[in-house]
Amino acid sequence: MKLNEVLDAAAEGRFPPPDGGTTIVPAPSARDSGVIAFTAHTVVFMDEDPDWVRSTLASVDCDALAATMHPFFLTALLERTGRRTDTIDLLTVARALPGDPPVALREIADRDHPRVVRARKRRDEVRVWATDTGEGVLVLGRGVAGRWETAIEVDENARHRGLGRDLALAARHLVPDGGPVWSQQAAGNARSVRAFQAAGFRPVGSEALLLAPAPDGA
Fold first, then answer.
1. Buried-exposed string 122-134: b where 16+ CB fall within 10 A, e elsewhere
2. In the Cβ-directed half-sphere of 81, how many Cα atoms lie within 13 Å?
3. pLDDT tens, 11-48?
4. Cα(164)–Cα(36) distance, rounded to whole angstroms?
């Protein structure tokens, strides 16, 4: 089994069996490794010894269903792989929609734009749009296992007007090839979670990405 097969199935509402198990699959690229916890089943995607992964999980002193997202296990993965991580995110997905986005956008072609530079560190084929007022930004690119991922930014002075929801919804209209389109939100970022769910993104699990070590001096 490959990670893209797991993700494709989850996008269609077909999830791993809720049996408390852990499935270990190869990393889809040198850039992308991590853990996705679905309901009562976890998928670990990395090029590590499966026996080591399972023995480390067995040593975690907590409910078995929570072991793969436990700080002890994630720290062990980071130490073994030399990678780093940011947060454990809520992983969400939505189908593509036809027609034009609900908000006027202009594409940013400047490869040195800060949002473009940041996005290209974790995604390929990155495209970035901004609202006419410059108060909101939308990013689309190919991320983990080649899936289309989106992220949005809204200026603080433009919040509470529904712009975040409109940008998230716009991603469903702009995603190439008919989607699906994925997005990660930090669990504590309630505004982002609300915006994406209002735009029709549904939660499928939690995700911890293990990022490749930064180049020296980066």
1. bbeebbbbbbeee
2. 28
3. 999 999 999 999 999 999 999 999 999 999 999 999 99
4. 25
CA neighbor of 196 nearest in space, from 209, 206, 182, 207: 182
Q: Which of 62-71, 107-116, 131-140 has the lowest mean pLDDT?
A: 107-116
Decide: pTM greater than 0.85. yes
Q: What are phi and psi of 132, to 5 degrees?
A: -60, -30
Asked whether the beta carbons of 34 and 177 are under 8 A apart, the reply is no
C-alpha–C-alpha distance, residues 208 and 189, integer Å: 16
* pLDDT value at residue 178: 84
Arithmetic mean of pLDDT, 81-93 = 93
Sequence-distant (≥ 6) Cβ neighbours of residue 66 within 8 angstroms: none
Per the structure block, which two tokens stand in for 198? 């209002």
Q: Which domains does the chain have, with CATH numbers?
A: 3-91 (no CATH), 92-202 (3.40.630)
